[in-house]
Amino acid sequence: xxxxxxxxxxxxxxxxxxxxxxxxxxxxxxxxxxxxxxxxxxxxxxxxxxxxxxxxxxxxxxxxxxxxxxxxxxxxxxxxxxxxxxxxxxxxxxxxxxxxxxxxxxxxxxxxxxxxxxxxxxxxxxxxxxxxxxxxxxxxxxxxxxxxxxxxxxxxxxxxxxxxxxxxxxxxxxxxxxxxxxxxxxxxxxxxxxxxxxxxxxxxxxxxxxxxxxxxxxxxxxxxxxxxxxxxxxxxxxxxxxxxxxxxxxxxxxxxxxxxxxxxxxxxxxxxxxxxxxxxxxxxxxxxxxxxxxxxxxxxxxxxxxxxxxxxxxxxxxxxxxxxxxxxxxxxxxxxxxxxxxxxxxxxxxxxxxxxxxxxxxxxxxxxxxxxxxxxxxxxxxxxxxxxxxxxxxxxxxxxxxxxxxxxxxxxxxxxx
Length: 417
What we know:
Blueprint: H1 3-15, H2 20-32, H3 34-50, H4 60-80, H5 82-85, H6 87-97, H7 99-116, E1 124-126, E2 129-131, E3 135-137, E4 152-158, E5 164-171, E6 174-178, E7 183-190, E8 195-202, E9 205-211, E10 215-221, E11 226-233, E12 236-239, E13 245-249, E14 254-257, E15 263-267, E16 272-275, E17 281-286, E18 291-294, E19 297-304, E20 309-323, E21 328-344, E22 349-353, E23 359-365, E24 370-372, E25 377-378, E26 391-396, E27 401-407, E28 412-416
Parallel strand pairs: 5-9, 5-11, 6-10, 6-12, 11-13, 12-14, 13-15, 14-16, 15-17, 16-18, 17-19, 18-20, 19-20, 20-21, 21-22, 21-27, 22-28, 23-27, 24-28
Antiparallel strand pairs: 1-2, 3-8, 4-7, 7-10, 8-9, 23-26, 25-26
């Protein structure tokens, strides 16, 4: 999608009026294009500021001026031909004279209708059937003292096999937890009068689409459920899933804990925190947010532009950590035969491994320094001295695993635990 297309869609994107595929394209473009993000922020601030403006009622003289202009501009045309048109022309003229009054009554009617009935979608599919009761969080409270801006709605879906949840939201927090039931429960809370959600079940797939300025989702799922979560703003919390997990947000934070399947998480400016995940693959991306991982196992792939990336208490069978200007820290163990690549352009790199680790290391820095507490042996069989070195190719133990450490201006530290 081109910049001019995204700029033209900013208003509908902000109001949540775009179809889901087009919404995702705009969100992805805004996450990558700084210029379009500036335009979007200007539109958002303008809409926010205009919503606080007072409503100005039209003065009585406005209708009088409108009636006078209609009389001056239209009456001569009809009077000149009244004799030939007869009674039909006279009736039409009377109708024209009534236009200001009819227009006023119509405007009042529209205002009253808009004030009492908020816009709602026609239908929404629930359990594969079209329902005339969509999940609307815009109705007036039925009980005294209930804030209509914080309405709570709950829906449940029965699933038999391995289920999937696909959720797309504009703003608001998303929380997913695991329970023992073979059903998926979706609890939605709206913090805006113009917030609503559509839910559709197709077999064991639950599709959820949130619209409006802010919707919070609290979802309970069977542990082997696959999760596909997307949001523009708002935090995400995933606890205990065993299926595949994919989380994408523009400005919100992502927290995944206790996952046992593949995990993929990405954010533009929010932070990412992964705890005690034991899946076979973990992929995390960020533009400026910090990435923090603890207790991870398996393959890890982490990439960032300016955010720091840190791993602690982790045991990786493969490790790729790349960032442009952020720092990199790894404290944990690497499996035998593992391939590890830690690269940063201007950030420093620190790798802390058990004393009995076996690896071959290639380290390189242009203007930084290399330091280590390991007793390394050069490939020629001599002890490598690091007092003034900015590049290193050596091994520790039998050198079964490979470690590549590279930075342009940062320092490199390879330490024992």
